[in-house]
Amino acid sequence: MRLPTVILAATLAVSLTYSSPAPALSNPQATLNYDDPVIQRLRTDIKNALSQRDCHGCIAGLFAFKALSTLNRKLALLTLNEICPALLKTEKDVCLGLTETQGPVILDSLEASNLAGGDAKALCYQLTGVCGPLPITSGTMEFPKSRPPDAVAPPASGNQIDVLHLSDWHYDPLYVPGSEAVCKKPTCCRDYKTDGNSKSTTPIRAASSWGDYACDTPMKLAKSLLGHVQEVAQPALAILTGDIPPHDIWLADEATVVPIEKESYDTMASILNTTVYPTVGNHEAGPVNLADDWEKWLPSEAIESVRDYGAYNTSPRKGFRIISLNTNFCYRNNYYLYENWTTLYDPFHQLKWLVNQLQAAEDAKERVWIIGHVGPSQIDCIQNWSALYYQVVQRYSPHVIAEQFFGHTHRDDFALYYNSDQKTVKSAIATAWIGPSVTPFRNLNPGYRIYKVDTGSWNIFDSETYVADLSKAAIWDATGATPDWHFEYSARKAYGAHVPLADHEPLSASWWHNVTEAFEKNDDAFQQYWTYRGKSAKRIPECVKGSACPANIVCDLRAGKSSDMCSSRGFVTN
Ligand SMILES: *[C@@H]1O[C@H](CO)[C@@H](O)[C@H](O)[C@H]1NC(C)=O
Ligand SMILES: *[C@@H]1O[C@H](CO)[C@@H](O)[C@H](O)[C@H]1NC(C)=O
Ligand SMILES: *[C@@H]1O[C@H](CO)[C@@H](O)[C@H](O)[C@H]1NC(C)=O
Ligand SMILES: *[C@@H]1O[C@H](CO)[C@@H](O)[C@H](O)[C@H]1NC(C)=O
């Protein structure tokens, strides 16, 4: 199985615009060369059309690009590389790396696609949002048994444990303190030969030894965070929702990623005195290497399953299961998926596998946590897959699925699921907890969560977030201090002030729904959430009362599936 990597470059292929179809393309003559007028015409038109960014242009651009690729693949790659710096506003070496690693995948997918049959419009919508939304035609998930009429979640036992949630670690082994933090590459704070700035001996902003808002995690920061976890909690278990390597996607390959994964997992194992349940992120190496790294925590059946699918199902305690999904099968920047995407809407039958696991858990009256990296609620989870996943959550919640955990956005967040199109307190059935990132990339403080979990219901009674204020990093360096890790907030206390709940009640989906209603009525409550969502970083953009922003964000919180989201469908490159 090919495990995909993040593909920023693929945004290139769909951002191209092309004013009118070129003649002679319907009858391509094998491989035309560079000087051929047809090739010249295509290349010129693709470049000229770059300024237009509408649906028609995007679709025409895909046709032109596919035609160019069929005529001369090498020239298609060359063209990708040429237009990349202006399009992605990045440097030539980044573009070259992206074209070399991801370009062939993009062209394979384009060649296999049925552009006239609807793939063109679908791609333009899914990737850039310049075309209108697609009808969600994912059909109906099939379930082995119908939902038991008397299905209820078990009561809480009163016994609580601490669970650590780590996400988006993004360790950068090439991080250099003192280097330039303001650069024109996807991630900064490295000794680059060129960083996009005009020649200068002193950095515009020098990277601190603890990290920077435009950079990934130095090991020193990661170790300091884990040390703080050990001071404030004794987690009975930990979940890690993906993305160990840095954002140097134009350089990353198996050879660079494997040692980064190994060093990171070994560091976690040496500092954390608990079992970590990991999941595959969009930046990870192949499943074979991950399986080797995860052997210290997972039983052998789970390791076998990781090798085969990048997913596993394991039971840390009697009556409790963790199912770890490989959400690269829904990730929209995974260009392998588009090869067959209108027939392969459940790639490798992972959702079918998930249903079988959940059915077994229902039969055995077990409680399940689902963990994954890209949240199905998130804009970059392909809509068909997301809509099918939603049906699975509806079928097995709340009596089997206790909670779900994802990462990927780097923000401290959540999303809700409902058993009806009417999104009300009565129909709210499940919560996806989206964990804050370890990395400060971009403009966020580093952080982690501790959950208070009942070991009878496996529901969450509190979610506590800890952060450090990275804006003080230069002071820590100057004074020899260490990061100011501190308790940021308790969800129960912060939002319980607006939606009171009794001691015996968990932070249920209905409670969270009420919290979103409080956000609608009370801007102070919303602004409090907005600050926590960005981990109290001083660089969070504003979400101003009276603008479209707060309503769109509340809509997103209630969007367990990506097609229900309201905020803009811009590029997401986490
Ligand atoms: C969604 O899945 C259905 C099959 O259920 C398929 O017919 C349709 O083309 C898919 N849509 C997209 C955009 O892939
Ligand atoms: C490690 O955890 C065990 C129980 O989970 C505890 O008894 C032991 O004290 C912990 N060790 C340290 C160094 O925290
Ligand atoms: C797409 O389908 C072809 C032909 O069935 C198959 O060889 C290929 O592996 C499929 N691609 C993916 C990503 O599953
Ligand atoms: C949600 O709010 C409604 C209406 O105020 C209230 O009846 C209900 O008990 C609340 N539920 C939770 C879980 O907060």
Automatic annotation (TrEMBL):
Gene Ontology biological process: sphingomyelin catabolic process
Cystine bridges: C55-C131, C84-C95, C183-C188, C189-C215, C330-C381
Hydrolase as UniProt keyword: yes
Protein's UniProt name: Sphingomyelin phosphodiesterase
Keyword Glycoprotein assigned: yes
Domain of life: Eukaryota
GO-annotated cellular components: extracellular space; membrane
Lineage: Eukaryota, Fungi, Fungi incertae sedis, Mucoromycota, Mortierellomycotina
Co-factor remark: Binds 2 Zn(2+) ions per subunit.
Keywords per UniProt: Disulfide bond, Glycoprotein, Glycosidase, Hydrolase, Metal-binding, Signal, Zinc
Source organism: Lunasporangiospora selenospora
Sequence positions that bind Zn(2+) 1: D168, H170, D243, H410
Residues in Calcineurin-like phosphoesterase domain copies: 163-411
PANTHER family assigned to the protein according to its UniProt record, in alphabetical order: SPHINGOMYELIN PHOSPHODIESTERASE
Homology family: Belongs to the acid sphingomyelinase family.
SUPFAM superfamilies, per the entry: Metallo-dependent phosphatases
Pfam family, one: Metallophos
Entry function: Converts sphingomyelin to ceramide.
